[in-house]
Amino acid sequence: MTLKLCLIYNCPTGAPGYVTSAFLNGMSFVEGWEQNFFISKWSMHQLLIECPSIYELMACRNFHWEHIPLLEIWREKKAADGNSHIILESYQSEESVEIYKEALYSNTVNYNGEMIPLPFNLEILKMANETCKILSRAKIPSQVKFYNIYGTNLETPHSVCYGSDDAPVTDLQELRNIQPKYVYVDGDGTVPAESAKADGLNAEARVGVPGEHRGIVCEHHVFRILKHWLKVGDPDPFYNPINDYVILPTAYEMERYKEKGLQVTSLKEEWEIISEEQDDGDNMADRKPLVSSISVSQSGDDQSSRAEAHATVIVHPQNEGKQHVELNAMSVSVDA
Q1: Is 260 left (phi over 0), alpha (psi -120 to 50) or beta?
Q2: The organism sits in which domain of life (predicted)?
């Protein structure tokens, strides 16, 4: 018996930008007016500061990042001559621990009138590091097939910078009140794709799907991939999830109704084709959509078997690596 395991948006080597911001400023999972119905960022921080899984999401020390994630702070330092100098300090994952300790040294929470200290927890960090070591040595049993689906195509925080040349940080405990700036990489908005696909396991396949960290589980394309891997429903011998991720369905509408003895079916479907080909920016304004139509009719022996169908495909010019495709179709048949 062979078991199959599909993993969606894992982050075995960490989500460095997300975690740094969560430790120092808190984290919100909603934007805009929806924040009025969600707990505040700092309340979320107070909940997460004792959460082991957040410590486990710190950038993995042994992972060879393409670009090393950094915590950067513009600081004002006084030299021996008494003059102040503005410098940009950079800290890698292990070095950032001292910054977290000092920034959260006096952090407390009020519980029924009692002030409870909530500093950066070194004991939890120690346990998290041990967990990461165990996970790095984990192997999948031979009878289990492992698949990895992760999110892509969204700006994802990677390195975090506090302060500026004009407004340096003078006290690390001020970091909690400073809005950071981010250096972004490709990912699902929370976990960099570089981290998400580095599961360290013997995977049958790894597929990047354009989607957001939580919303990806609702993507129809993900369901199609899972059905293919799990062999659920009617198999499609021409479907290959490894390269099919470049075609992203963006809209699908289908309607059927009867009117005056006619059976009418209308279909509207849209896709985005993701390509690595570079756009020719000089000719973008001159390009026009390609439109193609086809009509088919069928006549039977009598009027009751007559049917007609019409379809139009519109292929829009490629823009920023994406090409939008629209399909509109309608069929009309006599309702026997």
Answers
A1: left
A2: Eukaryota
